[in-house]
Design a protein that fits this description.
By secondary structure, the protein is of the alpha/beta class. The protein is 38% helix and 20% strand. Bound molecules: zinc ion (ZN).
């Protein structure tokens, strides 16, 4: 498609008032951007504008066509910079890690990160730590262009997590964990776990900026009764459900021993798989499991940095790109700040594209465009939110990102998908809106005092590690006074 054709088609989405009708008052008008719309035609609009009223996009098109129809309360001049939909991070833990960022060694054996670090941290966290952690994660996500995240469940204090996410202005889902197999904190009979989950759904109803989902820790820590009950709850309430499955070979090993069949096969038999379900990871899936995921339209949250940092075998076993190419629903995630560390979804998109090419020793079958789709409209589809977010289209929520045009990265007439995925990352984000509200301006959060947040984080980090009995592990000799 030529750019001229794209622009002509894009103006068809501009308002249809006769030119004589007075301009309509609106809240926000972004002008002079290079719009990466991610609409069904994937149109790129040169010198484009996005008109926003309240939380919703009213018009998308050429600036000269759109701007005369409106009298905005606020104008953002993108200065020729790329404008994209906000990114979707489909698996981002907001607790248990942000206060110990980059403290956990990357040379621990399998399981040690969880049992030596994550479990004691979760045990020692107070509600105020979880609110602070959530605010830290949300601020970092927003600054790198993520406007929607799935918090895959906190063990302790879902209201504290929701408070931090609500403060920050990000769009999110929240949930609470429980399990009914094996002893430990928060283990309870299935009915009790489901009641805790249902309470979160009641507190954060669908359609809110922070909404409740059915969350289980998953892996092999749920009985058939709990799994089936959770899926039934999600279907009855019309909300999403997420749980962890098979980041390593451990879950398949347990399911094979317990049931004589692999996890996704067993879950399909129970009726747990389906469009409501977003499985975190799904790295170690065999042919029958991939078929089950595709047949049931179950979604996956793919977190490649975590698998690489933890050495979990994604290069040899991950099939996410294949699932995408076969029509499956796959979103990108950054997992935990104790695993993948980064929350920058563009870095994750680049890794997803690169792993796909390298796994097959084939540069032709998957790349930046597919990865950018996963970060935007494909991710929204995997969350069941594509009717609301994921693209710049009239009627959708105004979740958008304006990139800094001053970088020499953007000096050439580049293919935007190549520039965003391969050449740059979230550090080039300049402005971000969520539901029409500017939550990042000139690279700084407007909703969070980041200087104060940094000091609060330093104080809370020391206190949390002391309570958890953990010491930061700097491998090389540290020279300091005293
Ligand atoms: Zn997780």
């Amino acid at each position: 498609m030529t750019q001229g054709t794209a622009a002509q088609q894009a103006t068809a989405t501009a308002p249809t008032q006769a030119s004589a009708s007075p301009p309509a008052p609106i809240d926000l008008l972004v002008v002079h951007g290079r719009l990466v719309t991610m609409d069904p035609q994937r149109r790129i609009v040169e010198d484009g504008a996005v008109a926003v009223d309240g939380a919703t996009i009213r018009a998308v098109g050429r600036t000269t066509e759109v701007a005369p129809h409106f009298t905005p309360r606020r104008v953002v001049d993108a200065g020729g910079g790329l404008v994209t939909p906000g990114f979707v991070n489909a698996h981002q833990h907001a607790t248990g890690g942000p206060l110990v960022w980059s403290c956990i060694p990357d040379n621990l054996p399998a399981g040690a990160t969880i049992f030596q670090w994550a479990v004691p941290l979760h045990d020692a966290e107070q509600p105020s730590d979880e609110t602070l952690s959530s605010r830290i994660v949300a601020a970092q996500c927003l600054r790198s262009g993520t406007t929607t995240l799935v918090e895959p469940g906190t063990v302790g204090h879902p209201d504290a997590v929701a408070a931090g996410l609500l403060d920050s202005g990000i769009r999110a889902t929240v949930g609470v964990w429980g399990w009914d197999i094996e002893e430990g904190p928060f283990a309870a009979p299935a009915a009790e776990v489901l009641a805790r989950v249902a309470a979160v759904l009641d507190a954060y109803p669908p359609g809110g900026r922070v909404e409740g989902w059915v969350t289980l820790v998953g892996h092999s820590l749920a009985s058939d009764e709990l799994l089936a009950g959770a899926a039934d709850l999600a279907r009855r309430r019309g909300v999403g459900m997420t749980m962890h499955l098979s980041p390593t070979s451990s879950d398949p090993d347990v399911y094979l021993e317990r049931f004589g069949e692999r996890p996704a096969v067993h879950l399909e038999r129970l009726g747990v798989l389906g469009r409501h379900l977003l499985l975190g990871h799904g790295v170690w899936l065999d042919d029958r499991e991939v078929d089950a995921v595709l047949r049931t339209e179950t979604a996956l949250a793919y977190c490649p940095w975590a698998y690489l940092r933890l050495g979990q075998g994604v290069t040899g076993h991950g099939r996410h790109a294949e699932i995408v190419r076969r029509g499956g629903r796959v979103a990108l995630g950054c997992d935990s700040t104790t695993a993948g560390d980064t929350v920058d979804l563009l870095r994750t998109a680049a890794l997803a594209a690169g792993l796909a090419k390298d796994q097959r020793v084939d540069a032709t079958w998957f790349g930046a465009h597919e990865a950018l789709e996963m970060a935007t409209i494909g991710g929204a589809e995997a969350l069941g939110m594509a009717d609301r977010i994921g693209s710049l289209e009239p009627g959708k929520l105004a979740d958008l990102v304006v990139f800094d045009p001053s970088s020499t990265h953007f000096a050439s007439p580049a293919d935007p998908a190549l520039a965003l995925v391969w050449a740059t990352d979230g550090r080039h984000v300049r402005h971000v809106a969520v539901g029409g509200r500017l939550v990042v301006e000139d690279g700084r959060c407007t909703t969070v005092d980041e200087v104060a947040l940094r000091q609060e984080a330093a104080d809370a980090s020391r206190a949390l590690m002391a309570r958890a009995g953990l010491r930061p592990a700097v491998r090389w000799p540290v020279v300091a006074d005293g």
